[in-house]
């Protein structure tokens, strides 16, 4: 009889210990769902040990818009576009602290060395701008998307 009570007592004690953990886990899940809905948009996470600078491009009614720069430190994330994503394609140019491209792409758009917002990604050098390769990110119509950079 004592042995059966002991097992029941252990289960009860374990349940009492687990109840706060379950409540905390439920709260953490709810918080995660809430923050993911509150922070829709395009984010970039830098999984490398190097600082990177990022420019982004996307289609608008006025043509392709490119803008930069966001500095993303090692093992950090930064939002590039906030709010629900409206495009299925975005373009990223990523360079290291020395200005060397860290992400190769097939789309050529215009950038500047200082902070910028530009429209129309062609005829860069005629306009006194720099040509840069951008990597195409297809978001598949998702309202939020995160790009993870990692280098071997």
Question: What do these coordinates show?
Answer:
This protein has about 150 residues and is of the alpha+beta class. Helix content is about 25%, strand content about 40%. It contains 1 helix and 9 strands, in the order H-E-E-E-E-E-E-E-E-E. The strands form 2 sheets. Strands 6-8-5-2-3-7 form a 6-stranded antiparallel β-sheet, with no helix packed on it.
The helix fraction, in percent, is 10-25%
The count of helical stretches stands at 1
Structural class: alpha+beta
User: Could you give the order of strands across the largest sheet?
Assistant: 6-8-5-2-3-7
pLDDT average, as an integer? Answer: 79
The total count of strands amounts to 9
Which stretches are low in confidence, meaning pLDDT under 50 for 5 or more residues running? 1-37
Radius of gyration from CA coordinates: 23 Å
Strand content: 35-45%
Instruction: Give a quick account of the main beta sheet: strands, pairing sense, barrel closure.
Output: 6 strands, antiparallel
Calculate the terminal CA-CA distance, rounded to whole Å: 61 Å
Instruction: Provide the succession of SSEs.
Output: HEEEEEEEEE
- Overall geometric form: globular
List the helices and strands and how they pair.
Layout: H1 2-38, E1 41-46, E2 52-60, E3 63-72, E4 76-82, E5 89-96, E6 107-111, E7 116-119, E8 130-138, E9 145-149
Parallel strand pairs: 1-9
Antiparallel strand pairs: 1-4, 2-3, 2-5, 3-7, 5-8, 6-8
């Amino acid at each position: 009889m004592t042995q059966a009570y002991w097992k029941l007592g252990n289960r009860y004690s374990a349940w009492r210990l687990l109840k706060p953990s379950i409540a905390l886990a439920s709260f953490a899940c709810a918080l995660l769902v809430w923050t993911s809905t509150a922070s829709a948009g395009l984010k970039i996470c830098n999984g490398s040990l190097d600082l990177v600078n990022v420019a982004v491009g996307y289609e608008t009614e006025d043509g392709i818009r490119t803008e930069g720069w966001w500095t993303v430190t090692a093992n950090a994330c930064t939002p590039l576009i906030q709010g629900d994503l409206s495009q299925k394609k975005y373009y990223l140019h990523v360079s290291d602290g020395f200005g060397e491209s860290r992400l190769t792409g097939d789309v050529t758009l215009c950038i500047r060395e200082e902070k910028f917002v530009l429209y129309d990604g062609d005829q860069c050098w005629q306009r006194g701008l720099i040509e840069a390769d951008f990597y195409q990110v297809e978001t598949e119509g998702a309202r939020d998307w995160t790009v993870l950079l990692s280098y071997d």
